[in-house]
Amino acid sequence: MKVPLSWIKDFVKITLSPEEIARKLTFGGLEVEEIEYIGAAMPAPSKDGKQEFKVGGFSWDREKIVVAQILEVMPHPNADRLTLLRLDWGGAKEETVLTGAPNIFDLKGTGPLAKPIKVAYAKEGATLYDGHQEGQVLMTLKRAKIRGVESYSMVCSEKELGISEEHEGIIILDDDAPVGVPLADHIGDVIFTVKINPNMARNANVYGIAREIAALTGQKLKPVSFDVMQNGATLKGNLNIEIKESELNPRFTAMLIRGVKIEPSPYWMQRRLRLAGMRPINNIVDITNYVMLETGQPLHAFDYDVLVKRANGKTPTIITRLPKKDERLLTLDNVDRKLDPFTILVTDTMGALSIGGVMGGGESEVSNDSKNILLEAAAWNFINIRRTVKAQSLESSQAGYRFSRGVHLAMAGRGCKRAAEMMRTLAKGMVAKGFVDVYPRKPKTIKVDIGEADVERLLGIRIPLRRIMKILESLEFMCEPLRNKREAQVRVTVPDHRMDVGEGVIGQADLIEDIARVYGYENIPETQITDTTPPQRTNTELEVENRAKDILVSVGLQEIVSYRLTTPEREAMLKVKDDRGYVTLQNPIASDRTVMRHSVLSSVFESVASNLRFTDRVAIFEVGKVYVPREKNLLPDEPRRIAIALTGPRDPESWQQADRSAMDFYDLKGVVLALADGLHLPRVSVQPIEHPTFRPGRTAQLSINGDAVGVFGEVHPLVSQGFLKAGGYTGEAAPLLAADLDLEMITARVPFGHPSLSISRFPPVVEDIALIVDESVAAAQVQSLILETGGAVLASVNLFDLYRGDQIGSGRKSLAYRLTYQLEDRTLTDTEVAKVRERIVKRAREALGAVLRG
Questions:
Q1: How far apart are CA 238 and CA 255, in angstroms?
Q2: pLDDT digit string (tens) for 454-498?
Q3: Cβ–Cβ under 8 Å, residues 134 and 162
Q4: DSSP string of 208-229?
Q5: Would strands 317-321 and 240-243 be described as parallel, antiparallel, or unpaired?
Q6: The dihedral of CA 295, 300, 303, 309: what is its sign?
Q7: pTM for the whole structure
Q8: Is 508 helix (H, G, I), strand (E, B) or coil?
Q9: How many whole angstroms separate alpha carbon 199 and alpha carbon 405?
Q10: pLDDT tens sequence across 691-725
C-alpha cells in the first residue's frame, strides 16, 4: 500500500524524518518496503553506501522549480498548435513561456485571463524528466528557438516532475497555490510503500497508518470528521433496502446527493490518488476512492436516475441477495461475468447492479450526465468476499482487497457520511435529509480486563498501569481503571474498528501484542519463561485421546502420524462399499493425495507396508480424523478414529528367550481389551461378526453397554496383500491384524469416575468349576452369567481350560473356570461359598442348559 506523507500529516504532527518514521512503523509491525521522494529533498547516502530502506524518487531544485500563475494565453505567431503564456512566477518581471499543452490551448484569447491559472514552473537550468521519451530520462532545460520564439523555461506535466506517467497536459494547481514558493514546499511529498500483513488489515488506510505513527511517536491523533450538512429534500420515501442474506451482508447504508456537478476533482485530490496508485476519473468516483483510501471503507456511487428509470419511475428498491441460476453481470471493467452461486450481489427489482464489496456494474455507473447520486457503503462477510475475489480473478480490486481482509461494520456509516459531505463541498451537491441504515447483525462491544501482572507474564517486563493505559488509548481503546481489584487492572473497551481483538485471555494476548509493539520490541529485555504449561481442564475429548495413546504405548505399540490425504482407489482396497463421497482438493499436492480420507486404516496399512521393507515386526497405531461430507454444508464431519495394526513375531528378537511365533487374533484382542480396561469402559463385550476387510471367522466387534464401537481381527489376505504390494513390499508376510475403533463413541462412554476397592485383608476362597455347554454358547456369555450371579461375594472369574471330546459328546464343550470368593470385612465360611456355587450352577443350567462336569 502506498501512503503519501502529506496525507498522513492531515491527522498527526510529524516531528521525525521519513527514515525514522519508516523505522518506527517497521518495528511496530507495519513493514516499510520502500521510501519514494517526489520533489522533497532526499537523504544523503550513508558513508558505507548501504541504505536501511529502499529509497527512490526525484528531488526538485528549490530555486528553479516554483509555483507560478498564467496571466494570459496567447497564440504562437508561427505555429497553430503552440501557445505563449504570460506568466508571473513571483520574480521581478513576468516571463513568456511556450507550451503545447492541450489543456491550455483552448484558453487562448484576446486578453488577460479572468482568473489566473496556477501552474508548476521550471526555469532555465532546471533538471526534469523528458516528457516525450519512454521511461524516466533526465534532461536539463536549455535555451532554444522553437518556430522563431526563444524558449528557456517551461510549465510542467506530472511526468516531467516524476509524479506519474501523465504527460498529456500540464499540472493545473488549485487556486490557493502560493505564487513564487518552491514547488517542493507546496506539493513535494514522500511516499511510503507499506506491507500490510493479515493481522494489520485495519491499517490498510491512511488514517490507520496515522494512528500507528501517533501511537509510536507520542503525538496526538486528529480524528477524521464524519459530520455532514444535510440541506436537501428528505430521502424518506425515495429508497427501499432489502437484505436477503444478512450473514453475508450484515449492514447496508445509503445517502442521496442531488444536483451534483460532474467535473475533474481538485488537483490536491488527484495528486494524492495518483501517489497512492489510483487513477483519477471524476470528482464523484474520486471521492469514493479517496474516502476508501483514507478510512478503509470502500464505497460505491450509483446514478440514482438510472435506478429510478429501471424501477419504471417508482421508488427504487436495492436488494442484496445471491445470484439466480445462470445470472450474469457486465462489470465496470467491461467483462461479462458468470456469477458463482455464493457471490453476494447488489441488485434492484430488474437485476444485478454490482458484485457486493468487489466491483460495480456498468449500467448504473456514474457518467458525465449524472445529476443525482445514490451513495452506498456496506459491510460484507470477508470470507465470502475472499472466495468471490479469487473465483472472479479480481485480486486487483481495491475494495475486494480490503473487504476480503475484514472491515468492521461500524465503518460503513462513517465512510458514507464522510463521502457525502465531500460530494456536497466538491461536487456542489445537496445531501438529502435522512440516512438509510439497515443493520440486521450488530456486533457486541468487547471489553477485556488486563493488569500489570498479565503484561509481565507474557512480556517478562513490568510496565506501569498508567503507561499501559496511555499506549492503549493512543490506539483509540477506552480504558477504565478497576479500583476494587487486589492488583492494578484496567477494563479496556475495544474500539469498533478493531476486528482482531477477542475476549478473555485471548483478548488479553491481543492487547499485550499492541502494548509490546508501541512500547518497542527493542526495549523488552530477554528473560527466561517462568510460567508452567497450563493444565487441560474440562477438555474431555483431548484427555481421553491422550489417555488412549498412553495405554496403547504402554502395551508396546508405537504411535504414527500419517497423511490425511489419499485417493478413492486406495481406500477401495479395503473392500468396503462407501457411497458418502469425498472432500476433494482443487490443487492436490500429488496425484496420490487428491481427497480427504474416510478411513485411518488405509493410512496405517500404508505405513505397515513401508516398515516391513526394513523390519519383520510392526506394532503401530494412529489416532486421527476422517472427513465425511455433509449435505448443504461447506465443512465435513471430522470424527476421530483409532486404527491399530500388528504383524510379525510376538516378541522382538532378543538374546533372552523370545517367542518368535507370529502374532494372532488373541494378541490383538489383548491390546483392544487393555485399551478398554485402561479407560474403565463399562460392560465391554466381544462378539464374532463378518466384515469385508477382515478374514471370516477371525473378526470380532467391540461393544460397550451393548453399543458397537469398532471392529478388529485378522485382515483378509486379499486386502493385506493389496496394500503390501502397493507399498512396494514383495516378501512373505505374517498375518496382518488390525482394529478400527470409533473414538467419538468411546469418549462418550468413558465414565467421569470409576470405583476402586482396597485390597482385602481377609483370605480368599478359590475353587474350580467346569460346565458343559453347547458349542454355540460363547465362553464370555458363561463368564458374564457367573459374575452376575456371584454378586459381591465373587471377586474374579477366569477361564483356564477348554475341552472337547467323546466323554462329553458331539457338539458340546467343557469350560473350566477358576472362581475367587472374597469379602472386605470378614472371612467367608464354607457354607456361604457352597450356597453361591449352587446358585451359579442352577442359573447356568436354567439359562444356558449347562451341566456340571464331575
A1: 10
A2: 999 889 899 999 999 999 999 999 999 987 667 788 999 999 888
A3: no
A4: HHHHHHHHHHTPPBPPPP----
A5: parallel
A6: negative
A7: 0.68
A8: helix
A9: 9
A10: 999 999 999 999 999 899 999 999 999 999 999 99
Looking up cell 494565453 gives: 73
Residue 516's pLDDT is what?
95
| Cα–Cα distance, 463 to 469 (Å, whole number) | 10
Per-residue cell: 54:
529502499
pLDDT of residue 110: 65
The CA–CA distances, whole Å, from 459 to 349, 512, 534 equal 57, 8, 17
User: Grid cell 480396561 — which residue?
Assistant: 677
Amino acid at 375: L
CA distances 389 to 277, 618, 852, Å, are 20, 49, 80
**Span 555-592, pLDDT tens digits:** 999 999 999 999 999 999 999 988 888 999 877 878 88
Q: What is the pLDDT of residue 47?
A: 67
**The three three-digit cell numbers of residue 471, written as one number:** 499506549
Q: Is the pLDDT of residue 168 over 90?
A: no
Q: Are the CB atoms for 508 and 454 separated by under 8 Å?
A: yes
Q: In what order do the strands lie in the sheet with 54-59?
A: 2-4, 189-195, 31-39, 54-59
- Three cell numbers at 455? 503484561
Collapsed DSSP state (helix, strand, coil) of residue 765:
strand
CA angle at residue 563 from 559 to 567, to 5 degrees?
135
* Statement: residue 103 has pLDDT above 90: no
Q: Are 231 and 428 in contact (CB under 8 A)?
A: no
DSSP symbol at 17 = -
Please count the residues of the chain.
854
Indicate if the pLDDT at residue 538 is higher than 80. no
Cell output for 852: 456340571
